[in-house]
DNA sequence: GTTATGTTTGACATCATGTCAGATTTAACC
DNA sequence: GGTTAAATCTGACATGATGTCAAACATAAC
């Protein structure tokens, strides 16, 4: 039977009263969950419509085991997105967004997000479509970084304050997605898209035109 | 039997050689197709995952009849998008984009697209996800209008030329989508979104900041 | 080595897409 | 108005995906 897996909710550190001290979670459970998550990431990246069976096969696991760890297909997809979000956040953390002029930091942030998006080209197609709220909540960690940076830039006078900050964040993210799409649809080359994205994002943020020309001039170092 | 419906390809004016002059297409066929299309528009607007059976029911038609007119569910969705695109184009035509300053015309275009998008809030969720090419091709008529306007503005010096024109078009469309999302997700009020979108789009296009402040100042007439 | 935990196998229910064929209705044509 | 082809309806069927359940089996924890 597979009735007792605690992947959904972590109860490890809960000291229940009437619990006759349960046994520890088995190690292969984590191993399976990890394999499934990894396989799902790959399968879905290749074909967003891939079935749970495909994913199970790729993970070297039976289909039912997948359901033992993830309630539904949607839940699995959600978990995959969480993983990718984590990767994105990690790369953004490495970009040291708190240092230097906000405009430069913004370009570094674009680079970071960019790399993540390029690694999972069909990321957008995977989008659950079902609950928009949950989808939005998942992006929160990424948006938070962006918000923080935008706020800093607005305070320093580098960025515009005549539109709401959340909208600015949305606009930046959305432009990033569009540029990513354009590239992996073959409508733009990667360098062209990179430059166009940089210019447009800086413009949206209200950065001084002279500064933009200064920052975006080919392959300058973004320190 | 329902084997001879010519909805897929219009053969009306083809003078076949060995055809023993076939009978005219029956009127109820068009009526059904129309009803199905209309029902699909409504059902899918309410719930993008609505089944073909739901749509058939709403159209007052059997499920099989739907398949008689549209090969697959995807084809039906494609047709729905075509219809909506048509509506959008009509509204854009009414906006007289060739007249007056390009910046003003751009704001009128935003209004027009905006109205269409608000009428079908879940339009984005419907997106087929399957063939990106076809999806892109469908938007072409809308993009054409935008391209034309952008080109005009670039020639007149109102809009920037330091990013590719197609990218500019993509950016404008994508910002419009984002603003629409923000509104129907309740993250922004409609007037706020309208103003923010206007400002951001004009900025992306490189319109003079002074001109922007001038154009966007609440509820001014956009002549 | 015992035992709970996890995985597997196989079966099953459900639902949606898509197809086929026969019976029936309806519009086109004379 | 009657004939006939076109269109729809009914019902059935195949397929494939999502979930669920239960018993047999494997393995890691104690």
UniProtKB/TrEMBL annotation, chains A, B:
DNA-binding region: 51-70
Residue ranges crossing the lipid bilayer per the database entry: none
Keywords from the UniProt entry: DNA-binding, Transcription, Transcription regulation
Statement: the UniProt record of this protein carries the keyword Nucleotide-binding: no
Superkingdom classification of source: Bacteria
InterPro entries xref list: Homeodomain-like_sf (IPR009057), HTH-type_TetR-like_transc_reg (IPR050109), HTH_TetR (IPR001647), Tet_transcr_reg_TetR-rel_C_sf (IPR036271)
Domain HTH tetR-type: 30-88
PANTHER family per UniProt: HTH-TYPE TRANSCRIPTIONAL REGULATOR BETI, HTH-TYPE TRANSCRIPTIONAL REGULATOR RUTR
Name of the protein: TetR family transcriptional regulator
Native organism taxonomy: Bacteria, Bacillati, Actinomycetota, Actinomycetes, Pseudonocardiales
């Amino acid at each position: 039977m597979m009735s007792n897996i605690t992947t959904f909710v972590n109860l490890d550190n809960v000291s229940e009263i009437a619990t006759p001290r349960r046994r520890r979670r088995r190690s292969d459970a984590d191993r399976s969950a990890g394999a499934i998550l990894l396989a799902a990431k790959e399968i879905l990246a290749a074909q967003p419509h891939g079935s749970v069976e495909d994913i199970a096969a790729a993970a070297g696991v039976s289909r039912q085991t997948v359901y033992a760890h993830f309630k539904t297909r949607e839940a699995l997809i959600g978990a995959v997105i969480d993983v990718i979000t984590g990767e994105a956040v990690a790369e953004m953390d490495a970009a040291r967004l708190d240092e230097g002029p906000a405009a430069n930091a913004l370009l570094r942030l674009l680079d970071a997000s960019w790399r993540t998006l390029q690694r999972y080209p069909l990321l957008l197609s995977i989008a659950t479509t079902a609950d928009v709220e949950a989808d939005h909540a998942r992006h929160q960690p990424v948006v938070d970084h962006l918000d923080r940076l935008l706020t800093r830039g607005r305070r320093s006078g580098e960025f515009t304050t005549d539109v709401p900050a959340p909208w600015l964040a949305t606009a930046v993210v959305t432009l990033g997605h569009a540029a990513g799409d354009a590239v992996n649809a073959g409508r733009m080359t990667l360098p062209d898209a990179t430059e166009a994205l940089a210019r447009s994002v800086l413009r949206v943020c209200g950065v001084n035109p002279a500064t933009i020309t200064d920052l975006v001039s080919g392959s300058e170092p973004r320190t």
